[in-house]
Amino acid sequence: MNILVVIDNYPYSSYVIHEISKIALNTWCDITLLGFPEKRDESFDIRNSSIVKTTIDYLQTIISYYDGNFCPYNLPEKIEFSPKDKNSFIFQSKKGRKKLKAVICTGDYMDGILNQVREVKPSLLVIGCDKNTNCKWRGKDIPALIANKVSCSVLIVKENKTPEEIVCCLDNSHITQESLELINQLSTLYRADIKIVGIAENNTMKVKVEKTMKDLLMYYLKQDISVWLEVVDKSVFSSFLNQVAQKDIIALWVGQQSFLKKLIPNDRINNLINNTPSSILLLR
Amino acid sequence: MNVLIYLDDNLASSISLRYICKHSLLVPMSIQPFHVETKEQDHYPVGVGWVRKTWERTIQDTSRSIIEGFIKTEINNCRGLSAVKVVVGNVETEIVKEIKRGIYDLFAIGMLASFGFHSFYDFLKSELVQNVMVPVLLVKNITQYKNVYFLIDKYSDLELLVSNYANLYKHLPYKLTLLCYKYGCFEQNNNDFQINNVKDIFNSYGLDSPDVVEVEGTSQDVGHMLREGDMVVSLVDKKGPKTAITDILVHSPISSLIFWK
Questions:
Q1: What sections of A152-223 are H helices per DSSP?
Q2: Residue A256: pLDDT over 70
Q3: Which one of A186, A256, B63, B80 counts the least CB within 10 Å of its CB?
Q4: Residue A240 is nearest to which of B112, B115, B140, comparing CB atoms?
C-alpha cells in the first residue's frame, strides 16, 4: 500500500497522522506526507517555517509507534528538506525497507496535491478536516474537490468518536482486494464492525450486486469475521447515507462503472464530505 | 423440532441455511428444505392434464437439481437436513399448504435486513403469515454471538413467550436476556410482571434464568442494541397495529424468532 497524506498545521492533521501511523504499523505501507504552509507566497522561508517543524514532528510520530520494535522506515537524526522545484521542497529517507518521504508545497493546494498524486501514484490519499468548519481548508472545499478529482481512493478523516461500523455501499463496480484490505484496516483500527450494503431498485437487487455481497460474506466468514448485511433501496439511499454518516464511516465505491456515482453525483458527495460528522472513504 | 426452511438460489437463502444448520449442531432438529418454482405466465404451457403434469414435473426436476446444487455448495455439515422438496405454484400459497400439513414446529426463511419498514410489514401482511400459526424464524444475518434476547413490553404475555421458546429451543446453550422495552414491565403493582417471577417462569420451562434489562429509546436505538445477539424472540399480533416491538424487529440486524399472539 502506498499512502499520500495531506497535512497542514491544524489539529485535525495531527489526528490523521496518529490514525495513519496505526495503519502503517499493520501494513508497512509507503508513506508520503504533503505539507502546506499557512502562507504560500514569496515570503515563505523553509528554515523558519512552522509546517516544516510540524512535518518533522509527524515523521517522528510515525516512527514512534514502533517503540523499539523493528521499524521498516528510517529517519536520519537531522531531517533536511531540499528544493524540488520552484514550489516545493522534499525530504526522502534513503534507507529503510519502506519509503517515507515528505514534501512541502508552497503553491496552490489543488495543483500541489494533483502533482503529488501523479508522481506518487498512491493507493490511498488521506486528508483531514474539521467537521465544525464544514470540512473546509482556509474557506475552500479542498477535501471535497480533491476527492472528486483524483483517481485513487480517498479517505477524508474527521475527528470524531470511534465509529461502530464501516458501512460499505456496494454497486456493480469491481471490488479490488486492495479496497477490501483498506476496509479491513479501518475495521481493525477502529475495532468497528463491517456492514455490507447492497443497493436495490424497487426492493430487488441486481444479480451482480447480490453475488458480490455473497462473495464478501463468504470471504469474511472464512476469516471468522462477522459482517452485517443490509439492503437499501435506491429511493431511500440518501436518507440512509444521512443517517449512517452521523456516527459511522461510509465507504463508497465511486469508479467509472459505478452506479453509485450516478446515484450520488459529485455535489452530493461534496455535501456528504462537507456536512457529515463522520469520516468518509471513497474507493476506486 | 421439525423445521421447514424455504430456499431459493439467493443470498437470503444462503444465510438462512447456514444459520439453521449452525443451530442444528446444538439443538436436535430435522430440517425440510422447500422450494416453490413459480408459475410464470410466459413460461407456463397452455395445456391441461398429462401435458401440464409432465411440464410441471420437468420444472420440478430442474429446480430440484438447482436447489440441491445450491445446498451442496453452501453447507457441508448440517444435521437432520432432508432432501429438498420442490413444488410448482405460487410461493406463499404453496408454503401455507405445506405448513398446514401440520408436521412443522418452525418455519425459517431468509430476509436480508433492510433500511426501511416496508419489507417486514409487507411480510406481516402477507398471505403466508396471515394463514399460519407456526412460529417464524426470519434470518437476517449470521452472527458469532451466543445471546438470545427476549423482547417484551408491559403488555406482553411473558409466560406464553417463554413456553413457546422452550418448546423449540430449550437445549440451545446460549445466554438469555430479557429486554423490557420502556419501563413498567416490572412495576410492583403489576402482579403478572413482577421481576421476581421472571426467574421462576424461565426455570419452570427448563431454561436458565435470564439477565433482565429495561431499555428505552427509539426503536432504532433498541434495534441497534441487539447487535450482540444471535436472535431476538418476541410475540407479535399479526392482525394488530404496528407496535414498538414490531418497529424494533424492523430495525434489528439479528434474526427474529416470532411467535404469534
A1: 177-190, 207-222
A2: no
A3: A256
A4: B115
- A231 in reach of chain B (CB within 8 A): yes
Which residues are CB-neighbours of A279 under 8 A, at least 6 positions away? A155, A156, A157, A158, A160, A163, A249
Residue type, A66: Y
Angle B162-B166-B167 (CA atoms, 0-180°, nearest 5)? 120
Contact A236 B115 (CB under 8 A): yes
Q: What is the pTM of this model?
A: 0.84
**Exposed/middle/buried for residue B165 (C-beta within 10 Å: 0-12, 13-18, 19+):** buried
Smallest CA–CA distance from A224 into chain B, residue: B144
Return the closest-CA partner of residue A191 out of A158, A219, A226. A226
Q: Which residues pair with B213 in a beta bridge?
A: B179
Instruction: Tell me, yes or no, if A152 comes closer than 8 A to chain B by beta carbon.
Output: no
Cα separation of the two ends of chain A: 14
Higher pLDDT, A88 or A5: A5
Q: For strand B211-215 and strand B175-181, is the pairing parallel, antiparallel, or unpaired? A: parallel
CB within 8 Å: B115 and A231: yes
Higher per-residue pLDDT: A84 or B164: B164
- Report residue B151: phi and psi, to 5°: -105, 120
- Whether the CB-CB separation of A140 and A273 falls below 8 Å is answered with no
In contact, B255 and B149? CB cutoff 8 Å? no
DSSP state of B81: B
How does pLDDT run across A91-135, given as a tens digit for each residue? 998 788 899 999 999 888 999 999 999 999 999 999 999 888 888
Q: What's residue B44's pLDDT?
A: 57
Does this complex have an ipTM over 0.90?
no
At A169-224, the pLDDT tens digits run: 876 667 778 888 888 888 888 888 999 998 888 777 778 888 888 988 988 888 87
Residue A140 CB-density burial (10 A; 0-12 exposed, 13-18 middle, 19+ buried) = exposed
Distance CA B215, CA B211 (A): 13
Whether the CB-CB separation of A272 and A169 falls below 8 Å is answered with no
Transcribe B166-212 into DSSP letters: HHHHTT---EEEEEEESS-TT-TT-GGG-HHHHHHHHHHTT-PPPEE
CA diameter of chain B: 69
Q: Which residue of A has its CA nearest to B143?
A: A226
B-chain residues near A167 (CB < 8 A): none
The pLDDT mean for chain A works out to 86
Integer angstrom CA distances of residue A7 from A51, A88, A143: 9, 14, 11
Of the residues A228, A234, A246, A248, the best mutation for testing chain B's interface (the one with the most B CB atoms within 10 Å of its CB) is: A228
Distance of CA B128 to the CA centre of its chain: 13
pLDDT tens-digit readout, B54-98: 877 888 888 888 999 989 888 888 999 999 999 988 999 999 999
The answer to whether B11 contacts chain A (CB < 8 Å) is yes
The beta-carbon neighbor of A228 closest among B11, B116, B141 is B141
